[in-house]
Amino acid sequence: MTTSAATTSAALLVRTPGAGFERATIARRAPREHDVRIDIRFAGICHSDIHQVRQEWGSSRFPMVPGHEIAGVVTAVGSGVSRYRVGDRVGVGCFVDSCRACEPCLAGEQQYCQRGMVLTYNGRDQDGETTYGGYSQQIVVDENYVVRIPEGIDFAAAAPLLCAGITVYSPLRRWQAGPGRRVAIVGLGGLGHMGVRIAHALGAEVTVLSQSLAKEKDGLRLGADHFHATSDESTFTTLRGSFDLILNTVSAPLPLDAYLGLLRLDGALVNVGVPSEPSSLNLLSLIVGRRTLTGSNIGGIRETQEMLDFCGEHQLGAEVEVIGADEVGAAYDRVVRSDVRFRFVIDVATLDQA
Ligand SMILES: [Zn+2]
Ligand SMILES: [Zn+2]
């Protein structure tokens, strides 16, 4: 039976840290009892792909096939699969398994698995194999780590929701972005633009804090109510004590005391961007307004599904630039320069073309 056989898949692969991409053929396991095989249609390019390909976050596993923003169609299911059928529109995000037994896993917060989640790529699967991600035409994943993409969102716009979307949705929900709440989104990149769309759809009053006013029109079009440049010192006096929640999506180090000063009593500054250097602050910045400085890491499977359903209901996808397999190297350089509106997605069908 063809559905139960192992397959090979065209993929984009990097052999050594910082090397260029090359086309390759990788093996995908035969679907096990609870696995689904997915024909990938689009894979988003996340900034963390670049860090891992260039080995900027400690040791990476090579060869590497990056990609953890995956959207596609189920083409085969194992005998025990109950949630999905052939033809279903599905997505896979940053992890493809976890221990399933620790407290976070049992609570559906697999992203905080105490034994470490199995990353979609640059990870080690339960069977010891290196995981290969979405810059490929097929992937095989346990159905419990697969989510459903609503009909209303096309695959290219949906792919970035699997990392960028859930990374901002989870903290926006946890810190109650909604009617009557003032939310600031720091940075208007891949994460930030989805932060604006989702916070707006949740009913919050949304402000973008960006280095300059260059993206102001985009920010307002995406749903922001206000837009301020952080390069303008007066921003920090004008907006002092304004926000219930500041969601920081940039990885450049922030002057934390200045940003904390923008929070109201009991406000929270939530970080999802990762600076390469340790940060410092004056604890008085927390004490004077009973403020919270915290972070958030993607989201669990249940919440990722909730996010996709929410985006389907509100017709929210990512704004993307679709590229072919040969353009990924150039796209990486543009992402590093923040020269993308707002996410690159790879049309993996182009892996077929010589
Ligand atoms: Zn990512
Ligand atoms: Zn666990």
UniProtKB/TrEMBL annotation:
Keyword DNA damage: no
Keywords per UniProt: Metal-binding, Oxidoreductase, Zinc
Pfam families: ADH_N, ADH_zinc_N
Domain Enoyl reductase (ER): 18-346
Highest taxon of source: Bacteria
InterPro entries in alphabetical order: ADH-like_C (IPR013149), ADH-like_N (IPR013154), ADH_Zn_CS (IPR002328), CAD-like (IPR047109), ER (IPR020843), GroES-like_sf (IPR011032), NAD(P)-bd_dom_sf (IPR036291)
PROSITE patterns in alphabetical order: ADH_ZINC
E.C. no: 1.1.1.2
Catalytic activity as recorded in UniProt: a primary alcohol + NADP(+) = an aldehyde + NADPH + H(+)
Keyword tRNA processing: no
Cofactor(s) in the UniProt record: Zn(2+)
Family to which the UniProt record says this protein belongs: Belongs to the zinc-containing alcohol dehydrogenase family.
Protein name: alcohol dehydrogenase (NADP(+))
